[in-house]
Amino acid sequence: MSKLTKKEIGAYIALLVAAMFWGTTFVAISSTKDYFPPAFLVFLRCAIGGVVLLLVFIKRLKQWSRSYWIVCAILGFLMTIGYLMQNLSIAAGCPPGRCGFLVATYCVITPFIAWFVWKRKPNIYHIIAAALCLVGIGFISMPDLLQASNVGLNFGDLLALIGSVVFAAYLVYLGRYVDIMDPVLLTIGNLLFGAVYAGVYTYFFEDSATIVWNGYSIFSALYLGVICMSLTNILQAIGQREIVSSTAALIFSLESVFGIIIAVLFWHEKVTASLLIGCTLVFIAIVISETKLGFLKKNMSSHIFRKIFSQIKDTQCND
């Protein structure tokens, strides 16, 4: 195995830190649900994140054109719906770690949305991942469904899964333009459009009297906007310059793992055997869908090659 360069080591660290921060998002949202209505929190996250990225990459605005307005308007709408479903899920009582794993199923759903929209047929890895994911969701949610006294396959779970489908649609649409348009400008544009959409929703449908401003709520809003939106996008851009997509996807899939760990440590989320099995199955499904086990096949091929080479060498020595 070749030695990693300093740039590659830095890229791995950048992607890992981004995944860790993404994993904290669900606990951070849970901790603010008593201070901010769901759509208002989406507005804050998008507005803060969009403005920070705009200030950092302001020189790129020279490339802005009419096409960015159209594409970002659609991306921003999908992203807003996805984030709103995520926030509503937590507000409805879905624990943050559990919500994180359910939302993360967008990685498995995306190939099937692409099949429906662009007629790109999913491969065997996507089908296996989808089956594992469904079983995993069953393990995560079914115990509650069987308890009449509980909220069952609760409304929060359903909202998280709807959010997952919307995020999958977002990624499919984004994938059509990310290679021909500046990804940084696309991110800035859809965040600012998202702020507009969420702002309109919260103005007409949410009670501003429920908003609570204090040191903790301000810190949480800044954390979600600056760290979990702006910084993570910058870290992702840095990391993916040096790391192949399959490896980057594997690191990104750790977001859901970090989410459940942080929820257990800081939100005191209860871990049951069923939840643990379900989360493990969903994580494996995400890894299979995102990487197609490319990292494993590479290692196996390398091992087999070394074994064959060793046998040939031993045969030559015996001769």
Task: Compose a concise summary of this entry.
The protein is an all-alpha fold. Helices cover 79% and strands 0% of the residues.
Shape: globular
Radius of gyration: 21 Å
Average pLDDT confidence is 84
DSSP helical segment count: 13
Major β-sheet profile: none
Strand and helix order: HHHHHHHHHHHHH
Structural class by helix and strand composition: mainly alpha
Q: What's the N-to-C terminus distance? A: 30 Å
Strand content: under 5%
Q: How many distinct beta strands?
A: 0
Overview of the molecule:
This protein is mainly α. It is built from 13 helices and no strands. The longest helix is centred in the N-terminal third of the chain and has 27 residues, at 6-32. Mean pLDDT is 84; it is low at 148-152 and 304-309.
Features:
13 helices, 319 residues, mainly alpha
Please render the helix and strand layout as text.
Blueprint (H helix, E strand, L loop, with lengths): L5 H27 L5 H19 L9 H26 L4 H8 L2 H13 L5 H22 L9 H23 L5 H23 L9 H25 L5 H8 L1 H13 L6 H19 L2 H25 L1
Helix pairs in contact: 1-4, 1-9, 1-11, 2-3, 2-8, 2-9, 3-7, 3-8, 4-7, 4-11, 5-6, 5-7, 6-12, 10-12
